Each structure stands twice: as C-alpha cells, then as structure tokens.
C-alpha cells in the first residue's frame, strides 16, 4: 500500500497527539510530535540562561540553535517516543508548566521555526509519517495527502491537560492551565511567522463532545478513505 503524509494541526491540548500516536501505531507509520521540538528548544533556553525572566537572548539562541539536537527514542515501558535533547531524555521536563508558559515566544522566532521545519521535513522525506503541530498542513507538509485541523473548547482542553498532569503526579492548577491554554491560543494564532490556522484543504474536527474512541474511529475512516 502506498504510504502517505498525515498532518494533524490544532489548538493546544485538544488531543491531537493522542489521535496522531494511535493512528501511527495502527498503520505502522512514524509519529512525530513537533510541539515537543519547540518545547525542547524552550527547555534548552531556560537551562542555558537564554530565557531569563521575560527576556530572550535571541543572539545567543541564534548561535546555539545549530547545536541543539532533538531526537525521539521509543520508550519500551510506555511504547511511545520520548524526546531527547542533545542525547538526554527530557520527555518529562518539557511538559512542565514553566516550559508551557515560555514555549510560545520561543516558537514565534523565525530562525527557530526555520531550523525546526527543516528537521521536520527531513523526518518526513520518505512519507509514512503522522506529524502533529500548528503549521504542519500549512508550512511543513503543504502537500500532505491527509490534513486534519482539531479544535475543542478551551475549558475542555484545560480539563484534559489538568487530568493528564495529575495522573503523572505533577502539580497543577486548573485556573493556571486554562489561562495558559488561552494565552497560547492567542499567541499561536497571532504570531507573524506561520500562525496557527486551518489549511484550506484540511478537514475540521471539533472534539469537544467526542470520546477518544469516537475520535479515533473518525480518524481511521478518513485514513481509509484515501489509502
Ligand atoms: O503541541 P504542544 O502544545 O506541545 O506545543 C507547544 C507549543 O509549541 C505551542 O503552543 C506552539 O507555540 C508551539 N508549536 C508551534 N508549531 C508547531 C508545534 C508547536 O509553534 N508545529
């Protein structure tokens, strides 16, 4: 069967990665969480004094960006890929509230996006890939055969994120998460470079009132229609 490229974009915490991972596993495709890459650059910036308070040392980040190596390695315990930053597993660290609250300004920098998009395009050269993010259908893989744009209400998304962090035993406040979700929505939609928007040929999925199972079924139907 011919392999295709699948782009899943949408707002933060709307279940994109769950559906993307499930589909990739089921059809034997590679799964790439592009948000994890922007989170890893953000963690690097925090740990290396580039993101200090509210200030970003863009000159230093520009110099360092070529030395930031991001890779994904399968975690045999979870069966899912963990994010590695310069060889170190940072999967847990990149999901912290600190990284979540600083990732949008980092991902708005043009040279950061250029570097990440170039890496993502290499990852998808052979097709057979499901990538989720904000600009996959518009910028990274504009020719993807299947494009999905996912959305859900901010409150539902904050609740899902809250439950996820709690389940992992991490500290979480619903109000803080809701505020973060709304702020990221705004910044991701209003940045100059590759703002979050639905590609014209993307299918819209509002999963506010869908269970994970219903959403999974819908996605498989779309995949089966075109393969
Ligand atoms: O998907 P996730 O919520 O982990 O992404 C974290 C952040 O990374 C987003 O809020 C957005 O600012 C940025 N991002 C992006 N482009 C992508 C994926 C994520 O700008 N393709």
Automatic annotation (TrEMBL):
Its EC number is 2.7.4.25. It is found in: Cytoplasm. It catalyses: CMP + ATP = CDP + ADP; dCMP + ATP = dCDP + ADP. GO terms for molecular function: ATP binding; CMP kinase activity; dCMP kinase activity. GO terms for biological process: nucleobase-containing small molecule interconversion; pyrimidine nucleotide metabolic process. Keywords: ATP-binding, Cytoplasm, Kinase, Nucleotide-binding, Transferase. ATP binds at residues 10-18. GO terms for cellular component: cytosol. It comes from the Bacteria. Residues 6-215 form the Cytidylate kinase domain. Belongs to the cytidylate kinase family. Type 1 subfamily. This is Cytidylate kinase. It comes from Bacteroides faecichinchillae.
């Amino acid at each position: 069967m011919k392999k295709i490229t699948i782009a899943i974009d949408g707002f933060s915490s709307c279940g994109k990665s769950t559906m993307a991972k499930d589909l990739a596993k089921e059809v034997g495709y590679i799964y790439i969480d592009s948000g994890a890459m922007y989170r890893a650059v953000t963690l690097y910036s925090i740990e290396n004094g580039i993101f200090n308070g509210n200030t970003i040392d863009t000159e230093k980040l520009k110099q360092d960006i070529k030395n930031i190596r991001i890779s994904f390695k399968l975690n045999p315990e979870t069966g899912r890929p963990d994010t590695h930053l310069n060889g170190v597993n940072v999967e847990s660290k990149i999901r912290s509230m600190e990284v979540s609250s600083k990732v949008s300004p980092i991902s708005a920098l043009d040279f950061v996006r250029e570097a990440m998009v170039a890496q993502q395009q290499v990852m998808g050269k052979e097709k057979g890939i499901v990538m989720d993010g904000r600009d996959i259908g518009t910028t990274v893989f504009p020719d993807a055969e299947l494009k999905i744009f996912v959305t859900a209400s901010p409150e539902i998304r904050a609740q899902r994120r809250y439950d996820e962090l709690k389940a992992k035993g991490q500290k979480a406040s619903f109000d803080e998460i809701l505020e973060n979700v709304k702020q990221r929505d705004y910044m991701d939609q209003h940045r100059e470079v590759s703002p979050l928007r639905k590609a014209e040929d993307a299918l819209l999925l509002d999963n506010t009132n869908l269970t994970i199972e219903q959403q999974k079924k819908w996605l498989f139907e779309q995949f089966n229609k075109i393969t």
